[in-house]
# Entry
Amino acid sequence: MLPKKKRLTKKEFSEVFKKGTRKKVGGFLIVSLPCASGEEKVSVVCSKKIAPQAVLRNKVRRRIYDCLKRHGSVWAQSGLRIIVIPQGAQENTPYNTVCDDLLEALKGIMITG
# Structure
């Protein structure tokens, strides 16, 4: 799990979700919005469509947060607030594949964002 100061608050989440730019890359939908203060923050949302059981949704969410934590340099100096929404079943996908797809998606946002 990321430190609390690196995660979106409810108010920030709502703003990013409403006003943010959406881009689907690989198995992820990335919603991003530049932050005036330059603080990069991130949040992960996993719907019941992805995994009907809470245990599986939490597993997917934890894997994504772990990848974000391990590869913080990819998004750390972006100045963006980011919401990561996995698309499709990912609970049985190997960790390296999930991580590679996520990093590709984030790099795509940094280039065009």
Remarks:
- The longest strand covers residues 28-34.
